[in-house]
Amino acid sequence: MATPKSVAFYTLGCKLNYSETSAIGRSFEDKGYREVKFEEGADIYVINTCSVTDFADRKCRKVVRQALRAAPQAFVVVIGCYAQLKPEEIAEIPGVDLVLGAAEKFRILDFIDDLSKAPGKGMVVAGEVTEAKDFINAFSFGDRTRSFLKVQDGCNYKCSFCTIPQARGKSRSNTVESVVANAVEIAERGVKEIVLTGVNIGDFGNGTEVIEGVKPKKEALFIDLVKALDKVEGISRFRISSIEPNLCTDEIIRFVANSERFVPHFHMPLQSGSDKILKAMRRRYNRDLYQQRVKEIRKVMPHCCIGVDVIVGFPGETEADFLETYEFLNQLDISYLHVFTYSERANTPAAEMENPVPMAERRRRNEMLRILSEKKRQHFYRQYQGQFREVLFEVHKNSELMSGFTDNYIKIEAPLQPEMINTIGTVQLMNITDGGHVSANVMEIPAIG
To answer: How confident is the model at residue 3 (pLDDT cuts 50, 70, 90)?
Structure first.
């Protein structure tokens, strides 16, 4: 086929996916392709998928249809977690030409020339997930004020509800030196904030080659990485995207509290406030450990934002179990929740467990926690009304406004000052808006620090 001139991307799912899409996009540009917006119509569409929930699977089909409406003759390539887990299913979607697995997606350009726009089933190139054993550098750039920097991939945990190890393989990491080099390159591009991403970033240090069957000790731990990054000039902020509570050590918490560049924001998955359910989920902690982590963060960083992941409707979760979770979260000094409705995933132990929760009940529980989350968020925001904090200013969907986040993750809105975009300035936090943000007055004084 003739070499396509344009390529468009669509990313579903997590920050890690965004970092990888951006890295793949730069590889296309290096080969002379021109990246265009999704709706403009492109010669090639690359859809990077998630498969954490059934919604993500359905969303993939919808995006394929949207791509073909924009460009009926386009070549459609599907990559990502869904592509690794269900490649044959995706290949049957009308219009899909190529499906690449976890070990193949970063070699996408090697397969492009073999594409032929023919009716019927797409070509599948998806090996066993065990083949995905190398760490591939990735970071996002150009689409946001901040950059998502991949430091770790894969997972060795065996949570009973999760397909990520099946989709991404075993835990493996970049080196400290390489991550620092990436951070320096990002700083040279003018980015002010880096969000560290991965599947299980607290497990940083895994992935060194096994020699003669002996797995060597980790060459570095996550604490070593954050200490090295804290010295990188040109980056004003580092943010930890998510870290398991059993890996969020007191040493890490105290370092962030005294850091020059790591912001006071932790996101720790809880999943359930019931020890019974945590055990069934095969999580590596109990609620007491989680509570200890929150107390330690509050002790050294009272102003810290603490986000929590929680799953409702896990098999065997009784009303009493759910209320135990609700009350635990209600009394916990946290800032917001990400609430997920449990959905059965093929080839996971949880999908075979007895006593599934009816879907209507799962949705009811989700709504209860969503309301609780909004109360928590507003309570957190109200504590800082009238105070002055640093904000990294970003483009707002309303052309008359600009938005941004404080260091402790309060989202603000302010009248647009174009020269302030992608700069850090001081604001006075005012009132909570109808949209759930905080209105802010931009101060004519230098940024704090």
So the answer is: low
Q: Which structure tokens are listed for 417?
A: 């000052």
The answer to whether the pTM exceeds 0.85 is: yes
pLDDT value, residue 174: 93
Which are the contacts of 204, defined by CB distance < 8 A and separation ≥ 6? 151, 152, 173, 198, 220, 221, 222, 225
Residues 6+ apart with CB under 8 A from 227: 255
CB 99 within 8 A of CB 87: yes
Closest CA to 78 of 103, 96, 56: 96
Please give the span between the terminal C-alpha atoms of the chain, in angstroms, as a whole number.
56
How far is it, in rounded angstroms, from Cα 268 to Cα 246?
10
What span, in angstroms and rounded, lies between the C-alpha atoms of 237 and 193?
A: 5
**Exposure of 212 by Cβ count < 10 A (0-12 exposed, 13-18 middle, 19+ buried)?**
exposed
Q: Report the candidate in 396, 387, 401 with the shortest Cα–Cα distance to residue 448.
A: 387
Q: What superfamily would CATH give domain 6-131?
A: Response regulator (3.40.50.2300)
Q: Does residue 382 carry a pLDDT above 70?
A: yes
Give me the sign of the Cα torsion angle 126, 130, 133, 139. Answer: positive
Backbone angles phi, psi at 308, to 5 degrees: -135, 135
For the domain covering 388-442, report its CATH number: 2.40.50
Contact 308, 325 (CB under 8 A): no
CATH architecture for the domain at 133-263? 2-Layer Sandwich (3.30)
430-447 pLDDT, tens per residue? 999 888 899 999 997 555
Q: Residue 143: which pLDDT band, with cuts at 50, 70 and 90? A: low
Contacts of 379-383 spanning 24+ positions with Cβ under 8 A: 380/305, 380/335, 380/336, 380/410, 381/410, 381/429, 381/432, 381/438, 382/432
b/e burial code for range 222-240 (CB count within 10 A of at least 16 → b): bbebbbebbebeebbbbbb
Q: What is the pLDDT of residue 246?
A: 96
